[in-house]
From TrEMBL:
Keywords: ATP-binding, Nucleotide-binding. SMART domains: AAA. PROSITE patterns: T2SP_E. Signal peptide: none annotated. It comes from the Bacteria. Residues 402-416 form the Bacterial type II secretion system protein E domain. Belongs to the GSP E family. This is AAA family ATPase. One of its GO terms (molecular function) is ATP binding.
Amino acid sequence: MAILNNLLKSKKLGEILVDSKLLNATQLEYALTEAKKRNMRLGTALVALNILSEDNIINALSQQLNIKKIELSKIAIDPAVGKILSETLSRQFKMVGINLYGNTLTVVLSDPLNVFAVDALKKAVSYDIEIAVAREHEILRAIDFVYSAKDIIKADKNEHINLNLNKEPQKDIGAYSVFGTSSSVNTEINKEIMESEDINIIKLVNDIIVSASKNRASDIHVEPLEDEILIRERIDGELFETKKIPKQFINPLIARIKIMSNMDIAEKRNAQDSRFNITLSGKELDIRVSVLPTINGEKAVLRILDKSSKIHKISESADIDNKTKDKILKLVNKKYGLFLITGPTGSGKTTTAYSILTELNKINKNLVTVENPVEYKIKYINQVEANLKGGMSFDSILRSVLRQDPDIILVGEIRDIDTAKIAIQASLTGHFVISTLHTQDASSTISRLIDMEIEPFLISSSIIGIIGQRLLKKLCDKCKEPFSPDVELLKELGLPEDKTIYFYKEKGCPACRDTGFKGRIPIYELLIPDKNLQKLILEKADVSMMRDTAVKNGFTTLRQHGILTVLEGLTTIEEVLQATQDI
Protein backbone atom coordinates (compact mmCIF):
# COMPACT_ATOMS: atom_id res chain seq x y z
CA MET A 1 0.00 0.00 0.00
CA ALA A 2 3.04 2.26 -0.26
CA ILE A 3 1.70 3.99 -3.35
CA LEU A 4 -1.57 4.86 -1.63
CA ASN A 5 0.18 6.15 1.46
CA ASN A 6 2.36 8.40 -0.69
CA LEU A 7 -0.73 9.83 -2.32
CA LEU A 8 -2.27 10.56 1.06
CA LYS A 9 0.83 12.61 1.94
CA SER A 10 1.08 14.44 -1.40
CA LYS A 11 0.41 18.11 -2.13
CA LYS A 12 -3.05 19.49 -2.69
CA LEU A 13 -4.35 19.96 -6.23
CA GLY A 14 -4.03 23.76 -6.11
CA GLU A 15 -0.35 23.55 -5.13
CA ILE A 16 0.32 21.02 -7.91
CA LEU A 17 -1.31 23.24 -10.53
CA VAL A 18 0.57 26.34 -9.34
CA ASP A 19 3.87 24.38 -9.34
CA SER A 20 3.04 23.25 -12.90
CA LYS A 21 2.55 26.93 -13.83
CA LEU A 22 -1.00 26.26 -15.00
CA LEU A 23 -2.46 28.56 -12.36
CA ASN A 24 -1.37 31.74 -10.60
CA ALA A 25 -2.24 32.56 -6.98
CA THR A 26 -5.09 34.91 -7.96
CA GLN A 27 -6.76 32.31 -10.17
CA LEU A 28 -6.37 29.67 -7.47
CA GLU A 29 -7.94 31.89 -4.81
CA TYR A 30 -10.87 32.75 -7.11
CA ALA A 31 -11.42 29.06 -8.03
CA LEU A 32 -11.31 27.97 -4.38
CA THR A 33 -13.91 30.58 -3.48
CA GLU A 34 -16.22 29.54 -6.30
CA ALA A 35 -15.72 25.84 -5.51
CA LYS A 36 -16.84 26.47 -1.95
CA LYS A 37 -19.88 28.47 -3.10
CA ARG A 38 -20.93 25.79 -5.60
CA ASN A 39 -20.09 22.86 -3.31
CA MET A 40 -17.65 21.50 -5.88
CA ARG A 41 -14.21 19.95 -5.75
CA LEU A 42 -11.50 22.30 -6.99
CA GLY A 43 -10.82 20.39 -10.22
CA THR A 44 -14.50 20.40 -11.19
CA ALA A 45 -14.74 24.12 -10.45
CA LEU A 46 -11.67 24.95 -12.57
CA VAL A 47 -13.22 23.17 -15.55
CA ALA A 48 -16.65 24.73 -14.95
CA LEU A 49 -15.08 28.20 -14.78
CA ASN A 50 -13.17 27.57 -18.04
CA ILE A 51 -9.89 28.29 -16.30
CA LEU A 52 -8.39 24.88 -17.13
CA SER A 53 -9.44 21.88 -19.17
CA GLU A 54 -9.82 18.42 -17.69
CA ASP A 55 -6.79 17.30 -19.75
CA ASN A 56 -4.68 20.12 -18.25
CA ILE A 57 -5.45 18.85 -14.76
CA ILE A 58 -4.93 15.18 -15.65
CA ASN A 59 -1.55 15.87 -17.28
CA ALA A 60 -0.39 17.87 -14.25
CA LEU A 61 -1.47 15.12 -11.83
CA SER A 62 0.22 12.46 -13.93
CA GLN A 63 3.53 14.35 -14.01
CA GLN A 64 3.58 15.66 -10.45
CA LEU A 65 2.40 12.41 -8.81
CA ASN A 66 4.34 10.17 -11.20
CA ILE A 67 1.27 8.09 -12.04
CA LYS A 68 -0.01 6.80 -15.38
CA LYS A 69 -2.52 8.73 -17.46
CA ILE A 70 -4.90 6.22 -19.04
CA GLU A 71 -7.16 6.66 -22.10
CA LEU A 72 -9.89 4.21 -21.11
CA SER A 73 -11.58 4.34 -24.53
CA LYS A 74 -8.50 2.66 -26.01
CA ILE A 75 -8.16 -0.36 -23.74
CA ALA A 76 -10.18 -3.50 -23.06
CA ILE A 77 -11.30 -3.95 -19.46
CA ASP A 78 -12.15 -7.43 -18.28
CA PRO A 79 -15.39 -7.09 -16.26
CA ALA A 80 -14.14 -9.63 -13.72
CA VAL A 81 -11.24 -7.31 -12.88
CA GLY A 82 -13.50 -4.27 -12.70
CA LYS A 83 -15.84 -6.09 -10.31
CA ILE A 84 -13.08 -6.61 -7.76
CA LEU A 85 -14.30 -3.21 -6.54
CA SER A 86 -17.97 -3.00 -5.59
CA GLU A 87 -20.26 -1.02 -7.87
CA THR A 88 -21.19 1.25 -4.97
CA LEU A 89 -17.55 2.12 -4.29
CA SER A 90 -16.77 2.63 -7.99
CA ARG A 91 -19.67 4.98 -8.57
CA GLN A 92 -19.26 6.89 -5.30
CA PHE A 93 -15.63 7.80 -5.93
CA LYS A 94 -15.56 7.53 -9.76
CA MET A 95 -12.94 4.77 -9.86
CA VAL A 96 -12.59 1.50 -11.77
CA GLY A 97 -10.21 -1.45 -11.63
CA ILE A 98 -8.66 -2.08 -15.03
CA ASN A 99 -5.74 -4.48 -14.63
CA LEU A 100 -4.67 -7.28 -12.30
CA TYR A 101 -1.09 -8.45 -12.59
CA GLY A 102 0.21 -10.76 -9.90
CA ASN A 103 -0.88 -9.17 -6.63
CA THR A 104 -1.11 -5.63 -8.03
CA LEU A 105 -4.45 -4.13 -9.00
CA THR A 106 -4.41 -1.01 -11.19
CA VAL A 107 -7.23 1.37 -10.32
CA VAL A 108 -8.08 4.48 -12.33
CA LEU A 109 -9.55 7.53 -10.55
CA SER A 110 -10.72 10.86 -11.85
CA ASP A 111 -9.37 12.50 -8.67
CA PRO A 112 -6.39 10.59 -7.21
CA LEU A 113 -6.01 13.29 -4.51
CA ASN A 114 -9.41 12.50 -2.99
CA VAL A 115 -8.25 11.20 0.41
CA PHE A 116 -11.65 9.67 1.13
CA ALA A 117 -11.51 7.66 -2.10
CA VAL A 118 -7.96 6.48 -1.45
CA ASP A 119 -8.76 5.55 2.13
CA ALA A 120 -11.88 3.61 1.08
CA LEU A 121 -9.83 1.81 -1.55
CA LYS A 122 -7.27 0.74 1.06
CA LYS A 123 -9.98 -0.84 3.17
CA ALA A 124 -11.88 -2.47 0.26
CA VAL A 125 -9.22 -4.73 -1.28
CA SER A 126 -6.30 -6.84 -0.13
CA TYR A 127 -4.19 -6.29 -3.26
CA ASP A 128 -1.30 -3.91 -3.73
CA ILE A 129 -2.77 -0.88 -5.48
CA GLU A 130 -1.33 1.07 -8.40
CA ILE A 131 -3.15 4.35 -9.02
CA ALA A 132 -3.73 5.88 -12.45
CA VAL A 133 -5.74 8.89 -13.60
CA ALA A 134 -8.25 9.30 -16.45
CA ARG A 135 -11.04 11.55 -17.68
CA GLU A 136 -14.15 11.39 -15.53
CA HIS A 137 -16.60 10.69 -18.36
CA GLU A 138 -14.44 7.79 -19.59
CA ILE A 139 -14.40 6.30 -16.09
CA LEU A 140 -18.19 6.56 -15.87
CA ARG A 141 -18.52 4.78 -19.23
CA ALA A 142 -16.13 2.07 -18.08
CA ILE A 143 -18.13 1.59 -14.87
CA ASP A 144 -21.34 1.23 -16.91
CA PHE A 145 -19.63 -1.36 -19.11
CA VAL A 146 -18.13 -3.36 -16.24
CA TYR A 147 -21.33 -3.70 -14.24
CA SER A 148 -23.56 -4.43 -17.26
CA ALA A 149 -21.30 -7.24 -18.55
CA LYS A 150 -20.96 -10.81 -17.35
CA ASP A 151 -17.68 -12.06 -15.92
CA ILE A 152 -15.33 -13.28 -18.61
CA ILE A 153 -12.69 -14.91 -16.45
CA LYS A 154 -12.30 -15.38 -12.74
CA ALA A 155 -10.11 -12.71 -11.21
CA ASP A 156 -7.94 -13.86 -8.34
CA LYS A 157 -4.33 -13.70 -7.23
CA ASN A 158 -3.25 -16.64 -9.34
CA GLU A 159 -4.30 -15.14 -12.68
CA HIS A 160 -2.21 -12.62 -14.59
CA ILE A 161 -4.31 -10.30 -16.70
CA ASN A 162 -1.92 -7.93 -18.39
CA LEU A 163 -3.30 -5.39 -20.83
CA ASN A 164 -0.75 -3.41 -22.78
CA LEU A 165 -1.50 0.14 -21.64
CA ASN A 166 1.36 1.88 -23.40
CA LYS A 167 1.88 2.56 -27.07
CA GLU A 168 4.89 0.31 -27.55
CA PRO A 169 4.04 -3.07 -29.11
CA GLN A 170 5.38 -6.22 -27.49
CA LYS A 171 8.01 -7.96 -29.58
CA ASP A 172 7.07 -11.54 -28.80
CA ILE A 173 3.34 -12.16 -28.69
CA GLY A 174 2.97 -15.62 -30.12
CA ALA A 175 1.16 -16.43 -33.34
CA TYR A 176 -0.71 -13.20 -34.01
CA SER A 177 -1.33 -9.64 -32.92
CA VAL A 178 -4.22 -7.24 -33.27
CA PHE A 179 -4.11 -3.47 -33.17
CA GLY A 180 -6.40 -0.57 -34.05
CA THR A 181 -4.71 1.85 -36.43
CA SER A 182 -7.40 4.49 -36.06
CA SER A 183 -6.50 4.96 -32.42
CA SER A 184 -2.75 4.42 -32.90
CA VAL A 185 -2.70 1.96 -30.03
CA ASN A 186 -1.42 -1.60 -30.16
CA THR A 187 -3.41 -4.09 -28.12
CA GLU A 188 -1.34 -7.26 -27.98
CA ILE A 189 -2.39 -10.72 -26.90
CA ASN A 190 -0.71 -11.84 -23.72
CA LYS A 191 0.60 -15.41 -23.89
CA GLU A 192 -0.67 -16.21 -20.42
CA ILE A 193 -4.17 -15.18 -21.49
CA MET A 194 -3.93 -17.22 -24.68
CA GLU A 195 -2.96 -20.32 -22.73
CA SER A 196 -5.70 -19.92 -20.10
CA GLU A 197 -8.38 -22.60 -20.00
CA ASP A 198 -10.98 -20.01 -19.03
CA ILE A 199 -12.93 -18.03 -21.61
CA ASN A 200 -11.20 -14.72 -22.32
CA ILE A 201 -12.85 -12.10 -24.48
CA ILE A 202 -9.63 -10.87 -26.12
CA LYS A 203 -8.62 -14.38 -27.10
CA LEU A 204 -12.16 -15.16 -28.22
CA VAL A 205 -12.36 -12.24 -30.65
CA ASN A 206 -8.92 -12.97 -32.06
CA ASP A 207 -9.72 -16.67 -32.45
CA ILE A 208 -12.79 -15.67 -34.48
CA ILE A 209 -10.65 -13.49 -36.77
CA VAL A 210 -7.91 -16.12 -37.12
CA SER A 211 -10.46 -18.79 -38.00
CA ALA A 212 -11.98 -16.57 -40.71
CA SER A 213 -8.56 -15.81 -42.19
CA LYS A 214 -7.60 -19.48 -42.32
CA ASN A 215 -10.91 -20.34 -43.99
CA ARG A 216 -10.46 -17.60 -46.64
CA ALA A 217 -13.62 -15.88 -45.39
CA SER A 218 -14.53 -12.47 -46.78
CA ASP A 219 -16.87 -11.57 -43.90
CA ILE A 220 -17.52 -12.49 -40.27
CA HIS A 221 -21.05 -12.22 -38.84
CA VAL A 222 -21.49 -11.96 -35.06
CA GLU A 223 -25.23 -12.43 -34.59
CA PRO A 224 -27.08 -12.35 -31.26
CA LEU A 225 -30.06 -14.73 -31.22
CA GLU A 226 -32.61 -15.15 -28.42
CA ASP A 227 -30.54 -17.64 -26.44
CA GLU A 228 -27.07 -17.71 -28.03
CA ILE A 229 -24.57 -15.89 -30.24
CA LEU A 230 -24.07 -17.30 -33.75
CA ILE A 231 -20.73 -16.79 -35.52
CA ARG A 232 -20.84 -17.25 -39.28
CA GLU A 233 -18.22 -16.80 -42.00
CA ARG A 234 -18.86 -15.97 -45.65
CA ILE A 235 -16.67 -18.29 -47.70
CA ASP A 236 -16.77 -18.26 -51.50
CA GLY A 237 -19.94 -16.16 -51.36
CA GLU A 238 -21.91 -18.33 -48.90
CA LEU A 239 -22.38 -18.11 -45.13
CA PHE A 240 -21.29 -21.04 -42.95
CA GLU A 241 -21.87 -21.48 -39.23
CA THR A 242 -18.54 -21.80 -37.40
CA LYS A 243 -19.25 -21.26 -33.71
CA LYS A 244 -21.95 -20.76 -31.09
CA ILE A 245 -21.29 -18.77 -27.91
CA PRO A 246 -23.43 -18.35 -24.77
CA LYS A 247 -25.67 -15.27 -25.02
CA GLN A 248 -24.23 -13.66 -21.86
CA PHE A 249 -21.01 -12.81 -23.72
CA ILE A 250 -22.66 -10.55 -26.33
CA ASN A 251 -21.99 -7.23 -24.52
CA PRO A 252 -18.26 -7.77 -23.86
CA LEU A 253 -17.81 -9.39 -27.30
CA ILE A 254 -19.28 -6.39 -29.12
CA ALA A 255 -17.47 -3.99 -26.76
CA ARG A 256 -14.14 -5.62 -27.62
CA ILE A 257 -14.85 -5.27 -31.35
CA LYS A 258 -15.81 -1.62 -30.82
CA ILE A 259 -12.61 -0.93 -28.88
CA MET A 260 -10.50 -2.45 -31.67
CA SER A 261 -12.40 -0.29 -34.18
CA ASN A 262 -12.20 2.89 -32.05
CA MET A 263 -16.00 3.07 -31.81
CA ASP A 264 -18.03 4.46 -28.94
CA ILE A 265 -18.64 1.47 -26.65
CA ALA A 266 -21.41 3.33 -24.80
CA GLU A 267 -23.44 3.95 -27.99
CA LYS A 268 -25.86 1.05 -28.38
CA ARG A 269 -28.90 2.65 -30.00
CA ASN A 270 -27.39 3.73 -33.32
CA ALA A 271 -25.44 1.92 -36.03
CA GLN A 272 -21.69 2.53 -36.19
CA ASP A 273 -19.08 1.93 -38.91
CA SER A 274 -15.31 1.91 -38.61
CA ARG A 275 -12.23 -0.15 -39.46
CA PHE A 276 -8.96 -1.47 -38.03
CA ASN A 277 -5.85 -3.27 -39.24
CA ILE A 278 -4.42 -6.54 -38.02
CA THR A 279 -1.17 -8.35 -38.70
CA LEU A 280 -1.79 -12.08 -38.87
CA SER A 281 1.03 -14.54 -39.60
CA GLY A 282 2.87 -11.88 -41.57
CA LYS A 283 -0.21 -10.79 -43.55
CA GLU A 284 -1.67 -7.32 -43.13
CA LEU A 285 -5.47 -7.38 -43.11
CA ASP A 286 -7.80 -4.41 -43.28
CA ILE A 287 -11.05 -5.12 -41.44
CA ARG A 288 -14.11 -2.94 -41.96
CA VAL A 289 -16.61 -3.15 -39.11
CA SER A 290 -20.33 -2.43 -39.05
CA VAL A 291 -22.33 -2.63 -35.80
CA LEU A 292 -26.13 -2.57 -35.93
CA PRO A 293 -28.66 -2.70 -33.07
CA THR A 294 -31.17 -5.59 -33.35
CA ILE A 295 -33.98 -6.78 -31.09
CA ASN A 296 -31.63 -9.40 -29.59
CA GLY A 297 -28.65 -7.08 -29.10
CA GLU A 298 -26.00 -5.53 -31.31
CA LYS A 299 -24.88 -7.43 -34.41
CA ALA A 300 -21.39 -6.93 -35.88
CA VAL A 301 -20.20 -7.70 -39.40
CA LEU A 302 -16.45 -7.63 -40.10
CA ARG A 303 -15.35 -7.51 -43.75
CA ILE A 304 -11.82 -8.83 -44.28
CA LEU A 305 -9.49 -7.46 -46.93
CA ASP A 306 -6.00 -8.89 -47.38
CA LYS A 307 -3.87 -5.80 -48.04
CA SER A 308 -0.78 -7.91 -48.57
CA SER A 309 -2.30 -9.68 -51.60
CA LYS A 310 -0.86 -8.46 -54.87
CA ILE A 311 -3.03 -6.65 -57.40
CA HIS A 312 -2.15 -8.03 -60.83
CA LYS A 313 -2.23 -5.96 -63.97
CA ILE A 314 -5.15 -6.71 -66.27
CA SER A 315 -2.62 -7.94 -68.83
CA GLU A 316 -1.37 -10.53 -66.31
CA SER A 317 -4.83 -11.83 -65.37
CA ALA A 318 -5.25 -15.57 -65.82
CA ASP A 319 -9.05 -15.28 -65.57
CA ILE A 320 -9.57 -13.40 -68.85
CA ASP A 321 -9.04 -14.98 -72.27
CA ASN A 322 -6.41 -13.35 -74.47
CA LYS A 323 -8.92 -12.09 -77.04
CA THR A 324 -11.00 -10.21 -74.43
CA LYS A 325 -7.84 -9.07 -72.68
CA ASP A 326 -6.50 -7.48 -75.85
CA LYS A 327 -9.78 -5.61 -76.37
CA ILE A 328 -9.76 -4.29 -72.79
CA LEU A 329 -6.13 -3.14 -73.05
CA LYS A 330 -6.88 -1.32 -76.30
CA LEU A 331 -9.78 0.52 -74.63
CA VAL A 332 -8.08 1.47 -71.36
CA ASN A 333 -5.04 2.88 -73.12
CA LYS A 334 -7.14 5.57 -74.78
CA LYS A 335 -6.51 9.15 -73.67
CA TYR A 336 -10.12 9.90 -72.76
CA GLY A 337 -13.48 8.23 -72.34
CA LEU A 338 -15.60 6.53 -69.68
CA PHE A 339 -14.94 2.85 -68.91
CA LEU A 340 -17.50 1.18 -66.63
CA ILE A 341 -17.41 -2.03 -64.60
CA THR A 342 -20.82 -3.33 -63.56
CA GLY A 343 -22.38 -6.08 -61.53
CA PRO A 344 -24.06 -6.69 -58.17
CA THR A 345 -22.36 -6.33 -54.78
CA GLY A 346 -19.60 -8.90 -54.33
CA SER A 347 -18.99 -9.50 -58.03
CA GLY A 348 -15.34 -8.35 -58.00
CA LYS A 349 -15.81 -4.93 -59.62
CA THR A 350 -13.27 -3.19 -57.37
CA THR A 351 -10.61 -5.83 -58.05
CA THR A 352 -11.07 -5.39 -61.81
CA ALA A 353 -10.89 -1.60 -61.45
CA TYR A 354 -7.64 -1.84 -59.49
CA SER A 355 -6.20 -4.26 -62.06
CA ILE A 356 -6.82 -1.66 -64.75
CA LEU A 357 -5.36 1.12 -62.57
CA THR A 358 -2.25 -0.97 -61.91
CA GLU A 359 -1.89 -1.48 -65.66
CA LEU A 360 -2.07 2.28 -66.28
CA ASN A 361 0.08 3.30 -63.32
CA LYS A 362 3.08 4.96 -64.96
CA ILE A 363 5.33 7.77 -63.79
CA ASN A 364 4.29 10.02 -66.71
CA LYS A 365 0.60 9.85 -65.75
CA ASN A 366 -1.28 11.59 -62.92
CA LEU A 367 -3.72 9.03 -61.50
CA VAL A 368 -6.33 10.07 -58.92
CA THR A 369 -8.96 7.91 -57.23
CA VAL A 370 -12.08 8.90 -55.29
CA GLU A 371 -13.24 5.97 -53.16
CA ASN A 372 -15.30 5.05 -50.11
CA PRO A 373 -13.35 3.47 -48.61
CA VAL A 374 -9.86 3.19 -50.13
CA GLU A 375 -9.44 -0.59 -50.29
CA TYR A 376 -5.89 -0.95 -51.63
CA LYS A 377 -3.05 1.53 -51.36
CA ILE A 378 -1.04 1.80 -54.59
CA LYS A 379 2.25 3.64 -54.96
CA TYR A 380 2.28 6.71 -57.25
CA ILE A 381 -1.54 6.97 -57.23
CA ASN A 382 -3.26 9.84 -55.42
CA GLN A 383 -6.08 8.21 -53.50
CA VAL A 384 -8.84 10.27 -51.87
CA GLU A 385 -11.38 8.82 -49.45
CA ALA A 386 -14.91 10.16 -49.63
CA ASN A 387 -16.54 10.99 -46.32
CA LEU A 388 -20.28 11.18 -46.93
CA LYS A 389 -21.11 12.03 -43.31
CA GLY A 390 -18.53 14.82 -43.29
CA GLY A 391 -19.78 16.38 -46.52
CA MET A 392 -16.96 14.96 -48.68
CA SER A 393 -19.21 13.38 -51.32
CA PHE A 394 -18.06 11.83 -54.59
CA ASP A 395 -19.29 14.71 -56.72
CA SER A 396 -17.77 17.44 -54.49
CA ILE A 397 -14.39 15.68 -54.43
CA LEU A 398 -14.51 15.09 -58.20
CA ARG A 399 -14.88 18.81 -58.80
CA SER A 400 -11.70 19.40 -56.81
CA VAL A 401 -9.90 16.50 -58.51
CA LEU A 402 -10.53 18.02 -61.93
CA ARG A 403 -8.45 21.02 -60.80
CA GLN A 404 -5.54 18.70 -59.96
CA ASP A 405 -4.51 18.14 -63.62
CA PRO A 406 -5.43 14.42 -63.68
CA ASP A 407 -4.87 12.11 -66.64
CA ILE A 408 -6.76 9.12 -65.26
CA ILE A 409 -9.54 9.20 -62.64
CA LEU A 410 -11.10 6.29 -60.77
CA VAL A 411 -14.52 7.00 -59.28
CA GLY A 412 -15.18 4.21 -56.79
CA GLU A 413 -18.87 4.09 -57.61
CA ILE A 414 -21.43 6.14 -59.53
CA ARG A 415 -24.21 6.46 -56.96
CA ASP A 416 -26.20 9.48 -58.10
CA ILE A 417 -26.92 11.77 -61.00
CA ASP A 418 -24.41 14.44 -59.88
CA THR A 419 -21.50 11.98 -59.78
CA ALA A 420 -22.58 10.48 -63.12
CA LYS A 421 -22.71 13.89 -64.80
CA ILE A 422 -19.28 14.97 -63.55
CA ALA A 423 -17.71 11.61 -64.53
CA ILE A 424 -19.15 11.91 -68.03
CA GLN A 425 -18.11 15.56 -68.38
CA ALA A 426 -14.58 14.65 -67.27
CA SER A 427 -14.41 11.85 -69.86
CA LEU A 428 -15.50 14.27 -72.59
CA THR A 429 -12.90 16.89 -71.65
CA GLY A 430 -9.72 14.88 -72.10
CA HIS A 431 -9.69 12.57 -69.07
CA PHE A 432 -9.85 8.79 -68.91
CA VAL A 433 -12.42 7.86 -66.26
CA ILE A 434 -12.95 4.42 -64.71
CA SER A 435 -15.94 3.74 -62.49
CA THR A 436 -18.30 1.03 -61.22
CA LEU A 437 -22.06 0.77 -61.26
CA HIS A 438 -24.57 -1.62 -59.70
CA THR A 439 -26.46 -3.17 -62.63
CA GLN A 440 -27.39 -6.68 -63.76
CA ASP A 441 -25.21 -6.69 -66.89
CA ALA A 442 -23.38 -4.46 -69.35
CA SER A 443 -26.43 -3.74 -71.54
CA SER A 444 -28.66 -2.65 -68.65
CA THR A 445 -25.97 -0.14 -67.61
CA ILE A 446 -27.05 2.16 -70.43
CA SER A 447 -30.70 2.01 -69.34
CA ARG A 448 -29.61 2.71 -65.76
CA LEU A 449 -27.82 5.90 -66.83
CA ILE A 450 -30.85 6.99 -68.87
CA ASP A 451 -33.04 6.38 -65.79
CA MET A 452 -30.64 8.66 -63.89
CA GLU A 453 -31.67 11.39 -66.38
CA ILE A 454 -28.36 11.45 -68.23
CA GLU A 455 -28.88 12.67 -71.79
CA PRO A 456 -28.54 9.79 -74.31
CA PHE A 457 -26.15 11.80 -76.52
CA LEU A 458 -23.78 12.18 -73.54
CA ILE A 459 -23.91 8.43 -72.87
CA SER A 460 -23.26 7.45 -76.48
CA SER A 461 -20.38 9.89 -76.88
CA SER A 462 -18.61 9.18 -73.56
CA ILE A 463 -18.76 5.42 -72.91
CA ILE A 464 -16.01 3.48 -74.66
CA GLY A 465 -16.56 0.13 -72.95
CA ILE A 466 -18.53 -1.69 -70.27
CA ILE A 467 -17.50 -4.84 -68.41
CA GLY A 468 -20.26 -6.89 -66.79
CA GLN A 469 -19.08 -9.55 -64.37
CA ARG A 470 -19.97 -12.15 -61.74
CA LEU A 471 -18.02 -14.33 -59.33
CA LEU A 472 -18.87 -18.04 -59.36
CA LYS A 473 -17.87 -20.76 -56.93
CA LYS A 474 -14.97 -22.79 -58.33
CA LEU A 475 -15.15 -26.58 -58.23
CA CYS A 476 -12.62 -28.30 -56.00
CA ASP A 477 -9.96 -29.81 -58.27
CA LYS A 478 -9.45 -32.77 -55.93
CA CYS A 479 -12.98 -34.11 -55.80
CA LYS A 480 -15.06 -32.79 -58.73
CA GLU A 481 -16.84 -35.49 -60.71
CA PRO A 482 -17.71 -35.56 -64.45
CA PHE A 483 -21.16 -36.45 -65.77
CA SER A 484 -22.99 -36.43 -69.09
CA PRO A 485 -25.73 -33.76 -69.20
CA ASP A 486 -29.21 -34.50 -70.56
CA VAL A 487 -29.89 -33.81 -74.21
CA GLU A 488 -32.67 -31.41 -73.23
CA LEU A 489 -30.24 -29.34 -71.16
CA LEU A 490 -27.73 -29.22 -74.02
CA LYS A 491 -30.50 -28.08 -76.36
CA GLU A 492 -31.62 -25.38 -73.92
CA LEU A 493 -28.04 -24.10 -73.59
CA GLY A 494 -27.50 -24.08 -77.35
CA LEU A 495 -24.81 -26.76 -77.23
CA PRO A 496 -24.44 -29.53 -79.88
CA GLU A 497 -26.52 -32.57 -79.01
CA ASP A 498 -24.61 -35.02 -81.20
CA LYS A 499 -21.25 -34.61 -79.44
CA THR A 500 -19.98 -36.17 -76.22
CA ILE A 501 -19.93 -33.34 -73.69
CA TYR A 502 -19.04 -33.60 -70.02
CA PHE A 503 -20.06 -31.27 -67.24
CA TYR A 504 -18.72 -31.49 -63.69
CA LYS A 505 -20.45 -31.52 -60.31
CA GLU A 506 -19.33 -31.05 -56.72
CA LYS A 507 -18.67 -33.99 -54.39
CA GLY A 508 -16.87 -32.83 -51.23
CA CYS A 509 -13.58 -33.74 -49.56
CA PRO A 510 -11.38 -32.50 -46.65
CA ALA A 511 -9.57 -30.07 -48.98
CA CYS A 512 -12.81 -28.15 -49.64
CA ARG A 513 -14.40 -28.70 -46.21
CA ASP A 514 -16.85 -31.14 -47.84
CA THR A 515 -18.50 -28.38 -49.86
CA GLY A 516 -17.23 -29.42 -53.30
CA PHE A 517 -16.04 -25.89 -54.00
CA LYS A 518 -12.80 -24.04 -53.27
CA GLY A 519 -12.24 -20.46 -54.37
CA ARG A 520 -14.11 -18.39 -56.92
CA ILE A 521 -13.70 -17.56 -60.60
CA PRO A 522 -15.03 -14.57 -62.55
CA ILE A 523 -17.11 -14.58 -65.70
CA TYR A 524 -17.11 -11.51 -67.92
CA GLU A 525 -18.82 -9.78 -70.78
CA LEU A 526 -17.30 -6.82 -72.61
CA LEU A 527 -19.66 -4.44 -74.40
CA ILE A 528 -18.05 -1.96 -76.81
CA PRO A 529 -20.59 0.53 -78.19
CA ASP A 530 -20.33 0.63 -82.00
CA LYS A 531 -22.27 2.89 -84.37
CA ASN A 532 -25.32 0.59 -84.32
CA LEU A 533 -25.44 0.52 -80.53
CA GLN A 534 -24.83 4.26 -80.26
CA LYS A 535 -27.83 4.81 -82.53
CA LEU A 536 -30.00 2.63 -80.26
CA ILE A 537 -28.79 4.59 -77.24
CA LEU A 538 -29.88 7.86 -78.85
CA GLU A 539 -33.27 6.27 -79.58
CA LYS A 540 -33.55 5.06 -75.95
CA ALA A 541 -34.09 1.49 -77.13
CA ASP A 542 -34.86 -1.18 -74.53
CA VAL A 543 -32.20 -3.43 -73.03
CA SER A 544 -33.13 -6.58 -74.95
CA MET A 545 -32.89 -4.82 -78.30
CA MET A 546 -29.44 -3.42 -77.45
CA ARG A 547 -28.26 -6.83 -76.24
CA ASP A 548 -29.56 -8.66 -79.33
CA THR A 549 -27.88 -6.11 -81.61
CA ALA A 550 -24.58 -6.50 -79.75
CA VAL A 551 -24.77 -10.34 -79.91
CA LYS A 552 -25.29 -10.20 -83.69
CA ASN A 553 -22.06 -8.22 -83.87
CA GLY A 554 -20.05 -10.79 -81.86
CA PHE A 555 -20.83 -9.81 -78.25
CA THR A 556 -20.31 -12.70 -75.77
CA THR A 557 -22.82 -12.55 -72.91
CA LEU A 558 -22.21 -13.46 -69.28
CA ARG A 559 -24.18 -16.68 -69.67
CA GLN A 560 -22.22 -17.70 -72.77
CA HIS A 561 -18.93 -17.09 -70.95
CA GLY A 562 -20.29 -19.00 -67.97
CA ILE A 563 -21.11 -22.01 -70.15
CA LEU A 564 -17.53 -21.96 -71.44
CA THR A 565 -16.23 -22.20 -67.84
CA VAL A 566 -18.58 -25.18 -67.28
CA LEU A 567 -17.13 -26.93 -70.32
CA GLU A 568 -13.65 -26.29 -68.91
CA GLY A 569 -14.66 -28.05 -65.67
CA LEU A 570 -14.20 -24.92 -63.53
CA THR A 571 -17.73 -24.59 -62.16
CA THR A 572 -21.17 -26.17 -62.30
CA ILE A 573 -23.97 -25.38 -64.71
CA GLU A 574 -26.19 -24.62 -61.70
CA GLU A 575 -23.80 -21.86 -60.61
CA VAL A 576 -23.91 -20.27 -64.08
CA LEU A 577 -27.69 -20.45 -64.45
CA GLN A 578 -28.23 -19.01 -60.97
CA ALA A 579 -25.77 -16.15 -61.49
CA THR A 580 -27.24 -15.18 -64.87
CA GLN A 581 -30.92 -15.98 -64.26
CA ASP A 582 -32.13 -12.38 -64.60
CA ILE A 583 -30.15 -11.67 -67.76
